[in-house]
Give the backbone structure.
Amino acid sequence: LADKLQETFKKLKNKGKLTEADVAEAMREVRVALLEADVNFKVVKDFVGKVRERAVGQEVLESLTPGQHVVKIVHEELTSLMGSSQSKIVISPKPPTVIMLVGLQGAGKTTSGGKLANYLKKQGRQPLMVAGDIYRPAAIKQLQVLGEQLQIPVFSLGTDVSPVEIARQAMEKASAQGNDMVIIDTAGRLHINEELMDELKNIKATVHPHEILLVVDSMTGQDAVNVAESFNQELGIDGLILTKLDGDTRGGAALSAKAVTGKPIKFVGMGEKLDALEPFYPERMASRILGMGDVLTLIEKAQVNYDAKKAKEMEEKMLKADFSLEDFLDQMQQFKKMGSVQDLLGMIPGLGGNKKLKDLQVDENEFVKIEAMIQSMTPHERRHPEIINGSRKQRIARGSGSKVQDLNKLLKQFADTKKMIKQFGGSAMMKKGKKGKLPFNLPFM
Ligand code: GDP
Ligand code: MG
């Protein structure tokens, strides 16, 4: 028996560092996943090489097998390859900010123009959309319809004036009307040709856009790479908008286009509707490209410093209903270690297709606020929130820089949660939990 134990022990010990064999095996899977996701072959090769170098010799996290650990590294590297953090639109200190949308026919330029204008309008800006695609009367009409739907002005001079002249006059119009954003829709072609590039270069030289955004259809896979390369070399682009990610594409084109041009993806199109434009989150895209629900769960688990035993303890405490605000704060802090809530939601397997969950807005400021309030309470108050009377409330609110109303809301939500736990028990909580009360029920999902 002792021998046997020793053998097992040895095996476990070997798990300490990633061996070349571990890495090689995991990388085979990763390579397939990337190629299946339509990532460019050359990009895959470079990438795999880089990850292999980083992975060999690394300590394996206790909670993972070596293979899973490699995938975790892959996930991190993919994320950083795509830009790590979200890349925002550059706003010119001297308005208007000029954004020019370029790309092949059917990529989604006109639709994205409308979506972008809508997005900016919601942020309090006053965009002007410019109909620069004069080759098809329908293209102008399409933009005008979008403008009407969104109540956003569209500048058009019909099909007889050159796009360069239209763009020039649009700038004058924007200045006169006080538009702080100008979004220029341009014509595409089925393939890149000189005529198209010349026209775009002329528009660029005339209006000096702050952002030239290349609109790429994520379904086009490998083609997206060549398109992105040509546009970047000939015209120079500042970023990408990746459309049609609501389809079943895994988004490998995104990675390839970014890898080839070095330019960040700024937005993704998630549907035909005019609010279906989202800022691009590299981490979510990495998850999508890897596309493996169970793998992602493991990555998630690895990143969570959350102690399962503690969670269990907490659940028992809750069921006994002596769950205090102190426990609650502790939970929240554990939870925060797991990373941004938005990113976390993006990592939950199957979320990609779940519209309801995706629409759910998690306000991270809410977390900060709640944390501040609880920290401003005395330990006794945290354990016995019922003693928090008027004067205590004032003190806590002052100490945390919040309003008494906020504090009341927190106390009420906490009391409701406690009541709910008592009534239904921990597991039923998810079903009963309402949207928008995430800080309370997410840790127990
Ligand atoms: P353009 O030729 O580049 O101006 O492309 P359009 O804006 O006219 O879009 C071409 C088609 O793609 C239209 O039918 C759009 O509704 C559709 N489209 C654009 N973006 C998206 C998206 O993010 N998701 C989906 N499902 N369809 C999109
Ligand atoms: Mg168009």
